[in-house]
Amino acid sequence: MKYPYIQHAGKFLPIVPVELEGKDEWLEFNAYIDSGAGYTIFHAWVAEALGIELEKGKRDYVIVGDGSQIKVFIHRIGIRLAGLEFRVIIGFSERLGIGFNIIGQQDVFDRFKICFDRSERIVEFHPKSKQE
């Protein structure tokens, strides 16, 4: 599945729509595809929108780009991405200091071959076969 880059703060970035499983319904959010992120991190307000009690998750700390640590609360929830539905570990944080959510490697990059084409401003997801 191909997604065009989305313009954010004057730059075109690999930001794609994803659906997350809430208590009562699936909700759509945008997230930056980050091959350097260990796992997926979303803003804390997303957990609230999904009906997830933030602090019932496992507490962890993540080092961000400037070297500081932010506290995250880990939850495992359903995601719909590039035509597939599966479960992912998501860390929700009140201190995610960037303007977008992040899709990281764990649980996502194992399921897809992901190709970034900056010149064409497209990111492609190719589901992996079971043998890979």
Outline the secondary-structure elements.
Layout: E1 2-4, E2 6-8, E3 11-13, E4 15-21, E5 26-33, E6 40-43, H1 44-50, E7 58-63, E8 69-81, E9 84-93, E10 101-103, E11 112-117, E12 122-127
Parallel strand pairs: 5-10, 6-9
Antiparallel strand pairs: 1-12, 2-3, 4-5, 4-8, 7-8, 8-9, 11-12
Q: Calculate Rg over CA atoms.
A: 14 Å
Number of domains: 1
For the largest beta-sheet, the strand count, sense and barrel status come to: 7 strands, mixed
The CATH homologous superfamily is termed Acid Proteases
> What is the ordering of alpha helices and beta strands?
EEEEEEHEEEEEE
Q: Write down the CATH topology.
A: Cathepsin D, subunit A, domain 1
Low-confidence stretches: none
As a percent range, the share of strand residues is over 45%
CATH architectural arrangement: Beta Barrel
Secondary structure category:
mainly beta
Q: What is the CA–CA distance across the termini?
A: 18 Å
Could you provide a short overview of the structure?
The chain has 132 residues and is mainly β. It has one helix and twelve strands; from the N terminus they run ββββββαββββββ.
Structure description:
The relative contact order is 0.25. The strands form three sheets. Strands 4, 5, 6, 7, 8, 9 and 10 form a seven-stranded mixed β-sheet that branches. Strands 1-12-11 form a three-stranded antiparallel β-sheet, with no helix packed on it. The chain has a two-stranded antiparallel ribbon with strand order 2-3. The chain has one helix at about 45-50; strands at about 1-5, 5-10, 10-15, 15-20, 25-35, 40-45, 60-65, 70-80, 85-95, 100-105, 110-115, 120-125. It has one domain (about 1-125): Beta Barrel (Cathepsin D, subunit A, domain 1), CATH 2.40.70. The mean pLDDT is about 95. By secondary structure, the chain is mainly beta. It contains one helix and twelve strands. A hairpin with a 5-residue loop joins strand 7 (about 60-65) and strand 8.
